[in-house]
Each structure stands twice: as structure tokens, then as C-alpha cells.
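Sample entry (246 residues):
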Amino acid sequence: MGQRPVSPWKGRAVASRAATLHGGYAGAFSAPFRYLAYLTVLLAGLLLAAWVIAGFLVFKIWPDGIRPLEVAIATTAAAVDGLYGIPFLRVQGVAWANGLYYALFVAPAIEQIIIADPHQLTPFDQTVQRFFVSMLPTLQVAMLTTKLYGLRLALWLSAILPVALGYAVGMIDGLVERSIRRYSGGRESATLYHRAKYAIAGVVGLSLFVYVCVPMTFELQCGSWVMAAGIGVLSRLQWKYYKKYV
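Predicted structure, serialized as C-alpha cells:
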């Protein structure tokens, strides 16, 4: 009996599977670091946006200058001591605010150089001090905005429970509607599913941006429940059109 011909692609297929497996391990190992990098860039971008918005409002819009920014910090700090939100995350606001302030202004010795006696500094440090003093109004806005950013980031995360509840209720109702449509022969629409999914991400991202980056007084409790209602509606629409036939 003749031998079966050996496919010339067999070795290549094995090599391809090995390469894919190797790439899968490497991707799984690097994924946490990649997502951490994405998160760091996102948070840094939000902080930079908060600095720009606060500076524009203080120097161009608000007639009282930096006073409304100080009021926003006082109001937000009072909310940290309030009762709304997840307690563990809410109380982290002060620690996050102080930690960010220390990392950006104390550890690089910016604060120390500004308040130092110029007669005790080297000529180079005196030049640096004069530069920072010339930018003192801008630095004050950045310092206060950094503290407000840390406080509000913790508060926003602490108020996530109503949003999660709204999403869960909408998902359950949407899956029920999906089952009804499955047995009644309703049309399927992947477009609506994806648009609702992207709209949810947009609502969450917009709420984070506005609350964290805009230094105005906001009612977190009312805003979180309004956002929860909107996300519930979008979640229902999303899961209503999720894979009708499985």
C-alpha cells in the first residue's frame, strides 16, 4: 500500500499554532501593564484638562478670580465627610488629593523653592525661584485644582452604585424583551446594540469629565441618579438587541 502524501503546509500550521500560543501568553502577561498605562494616560489627561479649564475660568471668566475654586474645594471636602457614596472610596478623597499634591508639587521641591529664603539659595536655585514666583498665580490654580481633582475622583467612584444598579435593571429588562422578540420573530439590529453600548460609554465618560474637570459646584447624589436612569434606558436598548438567536 502506498503512503499518504504529507501536506507541505503541515509544518507551517504547527509553527503558526505555536507562534499564536506564544503570542497569547505574552499578550496575557502584558495586558495588565498595558491597561495600567492606558489608565495612567487617561488620568493624566483629565488632570491636564482640569488645569486648563480652571485656569481659563479663573483668569478669563470668574470676576472673583480664585475664590470660586476655593469654594468648590470646600464644598467637595464637605461631601467627603457626608453620607452619600461608598464609604471606603469616599474617605479616600483627602488621601488622593494630598497624595497628588505631594507627588506634583512637594516631591519635586516646587513648594519648598517658592517659600524658601532667597539668601539661602544658590544662584541657580534663585533663578528657579524667580521663575516659579513669576508663575505663582498659575501655580496656585494648578495646586488647588489638583486637590479638587483628587477629591472629586474619589467621590465620583464612590457614587458608582446607582449607576451599576441602573445598568443591571436595564440589562434584565432588556434580556426579557430579547426573549420575547426571540419567540415572536422580531427583527434583529446589531446597529442599535452597538450604538447603545457606545452611548453608555459616552455618558459615563462625559459625567467623569464634567464632574472631575469642571471646578463648579455639582450635586453628586442627584447627578448620579439621573445618570443611572439614562444608563438604565440605554442598557435596556442594548441588551434588547443582543444576539437574538443563540
